[in-house]
Structures are given as structure tokens and as C-alpha cells.
């Protein structure tokens, strides 16, 4: 009898191909197995049906074998991958009957195994069996969507195991390597993406892409597929910014396919968090290439997406993703303003772009500065506005990053100006122009004294007297999370008082800037 694979879908797991050869079915007193899946790791393949027989190979969970007969407690099998025959204990095998009548049982078994950590290869084999058994009219229907969803879940979970397997014992490493080899034989492909000092294994997403093309997929299945296909840690960082933007546009297009209607609350929240992360990247990229309109639209959509998320709908792991999306979105929130790159009227700052691509911020002498005039009768010096004084440059600083000129603010004492500058995507610093006895200088306050990750340092208000200001800082970098609300000295930018909540500092209760309180995500 000749088996056929013509009904396997294009992604079809290659496991079933192991049984495309002609198999002669000999009659036996007991029911004869045709195909069986190995259910345990390190199952011995022996040369004879006895525990004392020599072991010719070791089999792993999820491997498929052709069963050619039964000998007591043992099944006589042929391993097409190793091109070797032998005997395996029947209790270590599970028969796979791929007729249409067995579809409900296979589906139930697949649903159970899909939720068992460590059984990913077994789940992949069962998924292949379900696809082989499905009637033609069920292909491209709900049943196939459920199988594609199961394949994607198994593949993702195995990739997560592989990514975390660096610190496992040698025996666990051996099992993991064997499972990855079985998955590869079954048509599941993985990508290795460098993430800092580690390497992340990522499923290439073939089953999920096919799931999105299946119009019978449920909203939750589609959301899971979209989130897997747009994982930020599975995007290799390209060298050119234009290539990074193109990748993020592809991710945005995938997420845009998923409607909120019909989604469970937690899937809708996860989707919004991912959209905020992607849109914030697009906003920064658009701003860097000078498209203020696109940057503003993307930043506003990112802010709207985060506003729609309730933390109650997110798990602990999801909340970590939410925190990073929030930091990234807050870093780029100035892009949402109509004139994000324009300095407010009356401030003695100019922003210009040099031929090499750097953006320079120049502080010049204020033409409306107060200068002494003749003395009044009471002996005090009268003051007058000088509007015709030369615009001498007092200090200048340049950056390769994005200057959010609309963020510039000057204190009442006119001895300090703050400015938000974003050197890289997701990391916003605070530039402080301050007046000293020797003249003006520029100090930089980063989100944290760590290698840049995601985060922001932002102005939160002026403290009367011209000696201090309020700063909010939050960052995730080098595996650490930092969140601080600080009263900072203008002389040194060293915090004078620090708290984890703004209401714990009296200065924040009295002198917080109204614009900061109304627009910043630091107070979410």
C-alpha cells in the first residue's frame, strides 16, 4: 500500500514524509501499528526484543517510526531517519492512525499536549498527524487554524527553551539539542538573533503567517500569531536606520491586520502594548529623516495605544513589556506636538543642522536681556530692555540624535534652560544650559548611569530661587530597572533629594510643572 502526502499543506512538517515509502501490511493476531510516535526521551532502540539486547540507538520524544510488527512487549520498528531497524518497548510508543475517523481523538490529544512544557516535539508530530488526517473540505478551515496555532505555540516554546538553555546541565543540553534536531526534521526553522551578549533563538513564523491567511482563525489565534511575528527581540538590528524603519513598518502592517473586536481583554492589551512599541520606533525614525507629520501621527497613535491599556489585563511578564513600551513611547512623546522641532518664541536658542548631519543647539545672548541703566532716585539701578544688542553665541552643543526643540524651557531667574534630546531610539536625555561665573555651559543628565537601553530623563519643574529643578528619570538598561523622582542641583546635576514616587517629595507637590503633569507618562 502506497501512502501519499499530497494533502499536506505547504508548510507540512517533514515528519510524515518518513512514511511515504511502500509498506507491506502483514496480518497479525493483535492490531498492527503502521506509524507510531516516541513518547519518551532517551528511549533505547534495541537489536532484539529484550532488555538485555544491545542498544543500537537512542530515540527522543516526538520521533516517528514505522511499525512493522509486534513481539510481546516490543514493537519491531524501522527508523527512516537513521535508516536502521530494531525493537522499542510498546509503552514508549503511541500509535498514530491518520484516518478521518481518528481526527477528533488526534485533535483532543494535540490540545492536551500543546499545554505541556517539554513536549513540544511530541506536539509537532501530533500536529502533522492531524493535518494528514483532515478531510480536504476542512483544510483552510477552523480545524487547520487550530493546528497551525498549535504548531506555532510548540515552535515558540521550544525556541524559548533553546534561548534559556545556555546555563543548563549537559544532560539537559543533550535533550534540547535532540529536540531542536527533531523540530528541524519536521520542517520547523529557527533564526539565531544576537541580543547583547546573548543569542536568542526565534521561530521563523511560517505556521503563524499561514494562520493569518486563514479567514477562519479566531481573534485570539490571530493576535497570538501577530505578537509572535513582531517580537522585538527577534528582529536583527540592521546597520542602516532605513532598514530598521522598513522592518518596523512590516511589523506595524502585521499588527494592523488584527482587529480589537472579539479579542479577549488580555490579548487586546498585549496587542496595544506591542503597537505602542512599534509606533514609537516609527515616530523616532520619521523624525530623524525630517518627516514631522509622520512622526507626529505615529507618536500620537503610540500614546493612544498605551492609554487604552489597563494593567489589570496584563500578566507579570506582560507588564515588563508594557514598562519598556511606556519608556520608549515617553521618550518620543514630544514628536506628537505639531511643532516638535521649533523653539518657543522668546527663548534665545537656535537649532540648525550641519552638513555632516549633526544637529547643533546654540544659546546666544538674549536681545531682550535686562541691562543696568541710570540709577533711580532711591539709589537702585533702573533696568531697561536692550533689543539692539548683538546676538553673541554663549555656548553651543551638537548631537547626532534628535533635538526636541519644543521642549525647551527657561526658569524665572533666567539662569537655566532645559532641553530634551534623544540620541538614540528609546533613550532621551536632558540637556541643561546653565549660567556660571565663567559663563554658560551645557550639562547632560542621562536616564541612568548605565549603557543606553530604554528610558528618559525629563524636566518636571523649576524650584524657585534658580538653584534647583525637578527631574523624573526612569530606565531599563543592563538588566536593571531604575525609577527616580529627584530635586537636582543646577550647579552639579547631583540629586539633593530622591524618591520613588513624586508625592513623597514636597517639592513635587508644590512646584511640578503643569505641562509635565499633563503630558508625561512618568506619572502613569
Gross geometry: elongated
Give the low-pLDDT segments: 1-32, 370-376, 379-389
| Number of domains as seen in the coordinates | 3
CATH topology term of the largest domain: SH3 type barrels
Strand content: 25-35%
Mean pLDDT: 87
CATH class of the largest domain: Mainly Beta
The assigned CATH architecture of the largest domain is Roll
Full CATH superfamily name of the largest domain: SH3 Domains
Largest sheet: 8 strands, mixed
From the alpha carbons, calculate the radius of gyration and give it in angstroms. Answer: 32 Å
How many beta-strand runs? 22
Judged by helices, strands and strand pairing, the structural class is: alpha+beta
In DSSP terms, counting alpha (H) and pi (I) runs of 4 or more, how many helices?
A: 12
Question: Can you give keywords for this protein?
Answer:
3 domains, eight-stranded mixed β-sheet, five-stranded antiparallel β-sheet, 31% helix, alpha+beta, elongated, SH3 type barrels, 524 residues, disordered N terminus
Summarize the structure.
By secondary structure, the protein is an alpha+beta fold. The protein has helices at 103-113, 120-133, 142-163, 170-185, 206-212, 219-229, 241-256, 265-288, 292-307, 316-331, 506-511, 514-519; strands spanning 35-38, 43-46, 55-59, 64-71, 74-79, 84-89, 93-95, 190-195, 198-203, 349-353, 359-364, 370-375, 381-385, 393-399, 402-410, 416-424, 427-436, 439-445, 454-463, 468-477, 480-489, 495-499.
